[in-house]
């Protein structure tokens, strides 16, 4: 399977470590289940993405694996509580990137490399929209529009 992040580059990617396969929360976990739920909901209401919530739980609260404690991942928990944003985090990050690239394109008209990479990022967005619409994670009639994406970011 091709990784979307490396689809349009000639790089091979980086090796990374894998999390241990244990699905049981260790007894030295820093917080209880109710405490993790409270922190995750508070951070989600402040606008923190699910990935950053997991990092904060790990680094600041001593929770190595929130999924092992909660029984579901942070995104699934936030979805059940109705605290997830309208669009998934990866699409929003790509939309922010498109807006930055469009602003650069307005300033530097002759940057052909930026124009090509802008089309690559937009194709990633289209591919993710198809995937998330099949899964039912984005609104049914949501369409990507190059002119209107700047309004989503602001």
Which short descriptors sum up this protein?
154 residues, mainly alpha, Helix Hairpins, 2 domains, 7 helices, 56% helix
Q: How many individual helices?
A: 7
SS-derived structural category? mainly alpha
Q: What count of structural domains?
A: 2
Percent of residues in β-strands: under 5%
Which series of helices and strands comes N to C? Answer: HHHHHHH
In CATH terms, the superfamily of the largest domain is S15/NS1, RNA-binding
Structural Rg: 19 Å
Mean pLDDT: 88
CATH architectural label of the largest domain: Orthogonal Bundle
Tell me the total number of β-strands. Answer: 0
Shape descriptor:
elongated
Residues in helix, % = 55-70%
Main sheet overview: none
Uncertain spans, ≥5 residues at pLDDT below 50? none
CATH class of the largest domain: Mainly Alpha
What is the subunit arrangement here?
single chain
First-last Cα distance: 34 Å
CATH topology of the largest domain: Helix Hairpins
